[in-house]
Amino acid sequence: MHWKESAEAAWEDRQGTAYKALGALLGTLFMVPFLPFARMCEIISAIVGGVYLYGSEVWAPCVPHSGCSSGSRVSKEVLWWLTGMGGARTERCRGWVMVNELDVEAESRALRILRDAEQKGGLLERAARQLHANYRKAGRQAGGTWLGRIQKRVRRVWPSFRFEVEPSIRLLGIPDGKISRGYLLATWQQNWQMRQAKLFRIPPTNSQQDFALYKILQQLCPQKTNGSRQWLTEAVFPSLNKISHEHLQTLVRFIGGKADFARINKHESRWKAFPGLRESDVKEACLFCWKTRRLKFWDSEWHAIVDCPTCRTPRQRFQLALRASPNKVEFKPLKQRNRLTISSDLASLVLKCRSDEQLVCDLARFVVDSLSCRQQAFRKLDVRDIFPTV
């Protein structure tokens, strides 16, 4: 880099290079039939993270975090790819699985430099003292220096963090242990807690995408006597190593409300193929139940996996998988429950499977097969099936 350029230019250069590496990697992985989620995280971290995080000790505090689209583009793309929530806001990708964001890893490396200066001294200690001197002499512009920026980021996680140089370099207000790993975990938990608090502060309606996650968190985060809630500190799916990455992507998109269901999109993608559907009273109904039985059931994720006749075959396979599992998990269709399916049924099923990786794999396979059956059924659907008089 030219001597007149600042650390922002170094970050932009790393981001552009890492984005090219990500594009080349995804183009190669497109032809890979199966990769476990843990191996996919390793590949992304080694190739994309190795390119992006080079020199992050210098430019990490300069990553922009203001505005509605904070963070780097490559960090968002990696998070979208790993969780399957492409195009969603960054906060909606958090909490499903334990994934370290590249921007947070860059900050942890910059923070580790201060810890190394404290423990090892030498030229690194002299550099840290110079950073502190620049911060003290900057006056009103102290927040724009390297130390001012890193302190602002770290204090979001550890509010009492301080960096002192007299009589010796000391890092105060941080927990014991490895500082880099502790910062990654603390940042992930804080972002996840903020996500949960926002969902309970502004509860989503039943036609919004986060409604299923809200119902799951209602059961995972019990309300205390004083009205507050005990936040979930682990991921919705805490331990996933052997599950197929593609199946995990589909499962997260399904529960996250980004699948093709009328409760959200009102069959908007089929308005041109089926004239009159937009104005009809079945635009929110399951078209398959309306076609076969002339019954109006709300087309939702929980109706599809529990009641819809189109997904009967995957449902039977999933029931057989549950019977073979040592964990006793009940999964009863509509005829055995004598009531309509509600969103809490899907939430209860996820809660029963979330702690057992094999059950999560079976649930993900069930969701993948069910969505495949729906796609095949939509291809065979005719306008006369919805409007017989046409």
Can you put this structure into words, describing what you see?
It is built from 18 helices and two strands. It is mainly α. It has two domains: 1-202, no CATH class; 245-386, no CATH class. The chain has a two-stranded antiparallel ribbon. Strand 1 and strand 2 (170-172) form a beta hairpin. Helix 1 packs antiparallel against helix 2 (37-52) and helix 5 (102-120) packs antiparallel against helix 8 (179-201). The radius of gyration is 25 Å and the shape is elongated. The termini are far apart. The model has no long low-confidence stretch (mean pLDDT 89).
SSE diagram, text form:
Layout lengths: L6 H23 L7 H16 L3 H4 L13 H11 L18 H19 L2 H15 L8 H10 L6 E3 L5 E3 L6 H23 L9 H10 L24 H11 L6 H4 L21 H7 L7 H6 L5 H13 L9 H4 L5 H11 L3 H24 L2 H4 L4
Antiparallel strand pairs: 1-2
Helix pairs in contact: 1-2, 1-4, 5-6, 5-8, 9-16, 10-17, 14-17
Largest sheet: 2 strands, antiparallel
Strand % is under 5%
Number of distinct beta strands: 2
The backbone outline, from C-alpha atoms, is elongated
Distance between the termini: 68 Å
Our count of helices gives: 18
**Helix/strand class:** mainly alpha
Rounded average pLDDT? 89
Strand order of the largest sheet: 1-2
Helix content class: 55-70%
Order of helices and strands: HHHHHHHEEHHHHHHHHHHH
> What count of domains describes the coordinates?
2
Gyration radius from CA atoms, angstroms: 25 Å
Low-confidence stretches: none
